[in-house]
Write a structure and sequence with these properties.
Length: about 220
């Protein structure tokens, strides 16, 4: 229920902010916001899940032999079920703005996989951070939420120009948000960079943090005892 209610509530709040405060409603603002809020929720909830994965799965870690690398991945997969359920928000917004799906909707599974891969990748550093710096978990959550606003979360790239546009593209969240907008709002295929950029960053994060994770996993049982 929380997965279904949160995106609806956030889109409602942000819609008021964009329309009346920022005065930049643009094209189909509700759908545009949904294309940012829904994929961001997967990233955010995966991060939160991963940071507490070792402590919440204490009994399994102590009593079962299994590959510890499954811990962060399971955080992403656990949140994926709710993420897919929240797609009803897309359908509602498309119907509200009378936007019919096109053949580009066939790209949706691809961008969903990219979204999940990115969430799974950041779950590795998130788990390590949550284990080492438990008191700083709220700070990490706040920083990730800030990245939503520093990307194209509220205002799509189609409404920006010049240096602002280029700066927003540096944020990997922008690539993910815009890929959903391309497919659901504009009925076109996502641009190459919107697919490649998050995947490359995911690979870099895994390459950097997987060795560290493999080293630290030996200490999990001691930490939760």
């Amino acid at each position: 229920a929380k997965w279904l209610l949160d995106p609806f509530a956030l889109v409602g709040v942000y819609l008021i902010l964009v329309t009346f405060v920022l005065d930049k409603p643009g094209f189909a603002p509700g759908l545009s916001l949904a294309c940012a809020v829904v994929p961001f929720q997967l990233i955010m909830t995966t991060l939160i899940n991963a940071m507490s994965a070792v402590t919440t799965r204490r009994s399994i870690i102590l009593n079962m032999a299994f590959r510890r690398t499954l811990l962060p991945i399971s955080s992403a997969l656990t949140e994926t079920a709710g993420f897919l359920a929240s797609f009803s928000l897309f359908a509602l917004m498309m119907a509200s703005y009378r936007i019919a799906p096109t053949l580009s909707i066939l790209w949706l599974p691809v961008i969903v996989v990219v979204n999940i891969c990115f969430a799974a990748a950041i779950s590795f550093p998130a788990l390590i951070f949550g284990l080492w710096f438990r008191e700083l978990r709220p700070v990490a959550i706040s920083l990730v939420r800030t990245m939503f606003f520093l990307g194209s979360g509220l205002v799509p790239l189609s409404a920006t120009r010049g240096s602002v546009d280029n700066a927003l593209k540096l944020n990997p969240f922008t690539a993910i948000f815009e890929s959903y907008r391309e497919v659901l709002m504009f009925g076109t295929a996502p641009q190459v960079w919107e697919i490649v950029y998050p995947l490359v960053l995911s690979a870099v994060v895994i390459a950097l943090f997987l060795p560290l994770f493999l080293r630290e996993q030996r200490q999990f049982a001691k930490v939760v005892e």
